[in-house]
Specification:
Multidrug efflux transporter AcrB transmembrane fold, two-stranded antiparallel sheet, five-stranded antiparallel β-sheet, 2 domains, 56% helix, 15 helices
């Protein structure tokens, strides 16, 4: 008993220390490494991320778009990117979108706002010292083109404005100055064609941000850039909402997937949320599995406490190692419960299957029957995890280290905490609870049953008519018959 008490207290002290460390976990505040810190490529990436984009660095282009439905710009009915990655949905356009005079003037004012905001990159010519605000506004070029041609601007009439834009985009006149040509704005105006008739559907303005194209920052820093551009968009929408343009939206470039900075940001944040959701769902599933395996609420609660303690110790250890909650760590936490439940469910099920009367004997039976299998299962998994931990790619290396921590903590907690607790408060057979003291009323293991029956069958007969002989034979046969018909004790 003193040894069991020391084992439980030691586990609780370790848990308190790990929980204290786990409370300091925080979302990723630096770029997640693909390679080790001392790798030359990784050092170059890390150094680049420490600085803002310079005058010569390429930056992410922000697109501000008008012409789609405000609440549901894409109909994603029937979208299944797993089976059809090319079909991403059907665009839904704003029904009353038109290029009215008010809309044209609003876009010109938005262009002035984009040039004035601090979120837009300004490029300086080191030879002349002249600075250029890197915005691309088709409406300004269209205005200057109309002025060069001696035409009026803004164009009166939505239909006439759409036709004028079409004429400008198709103008191949080489005498027009290059700065006034429409080639660089071909992707800034969107059309649909129905019954051979073109209809203007959307427009966009482009501007260069201060976010470097090669910088993959954590979600916390990307969120700052995103909020800044959401503020710029809000000011622009104050001008466009009263017009036929309606409310627009902004996106970080035209890239799809994780190459898009805002998508990359939301994916990182989703990993953090799903880490908590995954751990919670894993614990719920483990609870049902343990209830089915043990059919006892006390054992289930002890097992769930053991799994939760192992989870806390793993998180506390990785925080002490300097890890933060990024995508790699979040994915690892999602699968932690699945790894941690193995050992407790095997040992607790073996405890419940034991036919011994006392708690301590049932613990001994569980460790004797499945302890060696659980130990070698843990050891072989540790060897596999060690191979992953030795990889240069950091995702594999981190997963291997996390796997090793999970397996080792789950095994140690199941052996050093769960088993001693079951020896103290584990369920007992009903007969033992009612004070049955005669061990001969309990069914022995099968080998002992057979040997007892054979011994009774092969016992030398007493002399005929001997009362002692009849008495002895009756006691032996009766006792053997009782042993062979005794059922396993009911466990509560």
């Amino acid at each position: 008993m003193p040894t069991r008490i020391v084992s439980i207290l030691f586990c609780m002290i370790c848990l308190a220390l790990c929980i204290s460390s786990a409370t300091k976990i925080q979302p990723q505040t630096s770029t997640e490494n693909f390679l080790p810190d001392n790798h030359p490529f990784q050092r170059n990436i890390a150094i680049n991320n420490e600085f803002e984009a310079s005058n010569f660095d390429s930056t992410v282009e922000i697109n501000m778009v008008w012409g789609f439905k405000e609440d549901d710009p894409i109909d994603q009915t029937g979208v299944n990117l797993i089976f059809d990655a090319d079909y991403k949905g059907k665009p839904q356009y704003k029904a009353d979108f038109e290029m009215t005079v008010a809309a044209q003037n609003a876009l010109l004012t938005v262009c002035d706002q984009l040039k004035a905001t601090k979120a837009t990159k300004t490029e300086v010519d080191i030879t002349t010292g002249n600075s250029t605000v890197l915005t691309t506004c088709f409406i300004e070029t269209f205005r200057d083109y109309r002025t060069y041609k001696g035409l009026s601007f803004p164009v009166v009439g939505a239909a006439d404005a759409a036709k004028a834009l079409e004429t400008w985009l198709e103008d191949k006149d080489t005498t027009v100055p290059r700065a006034l040509r429409a080639q660089k704005h071909e992707t800034d105006v969107g059309w649909t064609k129905k019954d051979g008739v073109l209809k203007l559907q959307w427009v966009k303005l482009r501007t260069r941000s201060l976010l470097g194209s090669r910088a993959f920052l954590p979600a916390s820093q990307l969120r700052e850039f995103y909020n800044a551009w959401e503020g710029v968009l809000a000011e622009a929408n104050k001008l466009t909402v009263p017009t036929s343009l309606g409310k627009g939206f902004q996106m970080a470039g035209a890239n799809a997937g994780r190459g898009n900075r805002w998508i990359f940001m939301t994916v990182q944040e989703a990993y953090v949320r799903m880490a908590l959701v995954g751990a919670g769902v894993g614990l719920v599933i483990a609870t049902f599995v343990l209830l089915l395996a043990t059919r006892n609420i006390i054992v289930t609660l002890l097992c769930m406490g053991t799994i939760a303690a192992a989870l806390g110790c793993v998180i506390g250890t990785i925080v002490a190692m300097g890890w933060q909650l990024g995508s790699n760590e979040s994915l690892c936490i999602m699968v932690l419960c699945g790894f941690a439940v193995d050992y407790v469910v095997h040992l607790s099920h073996a405890y419940m299957e034991s036919e011994s009367l006392t708690r301590l004997e049932r613990v001994h039976d569980a460790l004797r029957d499945l302890g060696i299998s659980v130990f070698w299962g843990m050891l072989t998994s540790m060897f596999a995890a060690a191979a992953l931990a030795s990889c240069q790619i950091q995702f594999l290396s981190k997963f291997g280290i996390f796997f090793m921590l999970t397996i080792s903590y789950a095994y140690l907690w199941s052996v050093l905490f769960l088993m001693p607790c079951l020896a103290f408060i584990g369920p007992e057979p009903v007969g033992s609870a009612h004070g049955v003291k005669d061990p001969e009323l309990v069914s022995p293991t099968p080998p002992f049953k057979e040997s007892s029956f054979e011994m009774a069958a092969s016992a030398p007969p007493s002399p005929p008519g001997s009362d002692a002989g009849d008495d002895q034979a009756g006691r032996v046969v009766g006792r053997v018959a009782a042993k062979r018909t005794q059922t396993a004790p009911y466990v509560v």
